[in-house]
Design a protein that fits this description.
By secondary structure, the protein is an alpha/beta fold. 39% of the residues lie in helices and 20% in strands.
């Protein structure tokens, strides 16, 4: 049996182990926030949504570290669950959720209104504008649409948008901190989803060099940066690496 074949087999076994571990983490995490899915109108859970592990991390974080002013780039199930958490636990929070797709924002708004979550969730539609900072068609939300959001400090920032799934746009999420790095509260948390992709890994290193943000990657896909005092909110004991 050749060395190349053995290495290939080992890599397959390693990949299968990592995938199984991720599935177990997601199953455990899903059970933690199942209460926000039961007895509620069904909201679609697509491949674009946060993993259950990441979703549970976010919800834990809001409660454990008492986050008040939240901003989320990329709207979806996480937005709805944050609203449901705030309503059920009677939390004093305000979450601004930004998305580039107007039809998707309109779809979400129906759930927000119907479930009485408008007190907690503010949806903002922001079209995309191409930037010439990097080679390629990297884009960010039209900053003129977001200027009113730069008037206060945020203790929770979740970056899961805009789209950044191929090489031509893979650095698009960098711009979250070109425009918002000065708006972090003294005690805050920053999340970046899809941290296992090459583009997001580059973004994390650029954020570290340009803004001094040091991230840990949990469960291979969810990057977390704590600033100031905090209690770790990881929902499942898992391995992590530091950027």
């Amino acid at each position: 049996m050749g060395l190349f074949y053995k290495l290939k087999q080992f890599n397959r076994l390693l990949h299968n182990h990592q995938r199984l571990t991720s599935l177990m983490e997601d199953a455990i995490a899903l059970a933690q926030f199942q209460i926000f899915l039961d007895d509620q109108e069904y909201f679609p859970y697509s491949s674009m949504a946060l993993r259950p592990f990441s979703m549970a991390f976010v919800l834990n974080e809001i409660v454990i570290n008492q986050r008040k002013n939240l901003i989320e780039f990329g709207s979806g199930l996480s937005t709805i669950l944050i609203g449901r958490l705030a309503k059920r636990n009677n939390l004093d929070i305000h979450c601004v959720s930004i998305d580039e797709n107007k039809d998707w924002i309109d779809f979400l708004q129906k759930f927000i209104v119907k479930e009485g979550l408008s007190k907690y969730i503010e949806l903002v539609h922001a079209s995309l504008a191409v930037s010439n900072k990097f080679q390629g068609n990297h884009h960010w939300y039209n900053i003129n649409t977001l200027k009113h959001l730069q008037l206060k400090k945020y203790d929770f920032i979740l970056v899961d948008g805009p789209t950044a799934f191929n090489d031509d746009i893979k650095l698009s999420r960098y711009f979250a901190f070109q425009y918002f790095h000065e708006l972090l509260a003294d005690n805050a948390v920053v999340f970046l989803d899809d941290a296992g992709r090459s583009g997001e890994l580059e973004v994390l290193n650029m954020w570290k060099n340009d803004f001094g943000l040091k991230f840990d990657i949990y469960s291979e896909t969810f990057a977390v940066c704590y600033i100031g005092e905090y209690f770790e909110a990881c929902p499942v004991k898992t391995g992590k690496s530091t950027i």
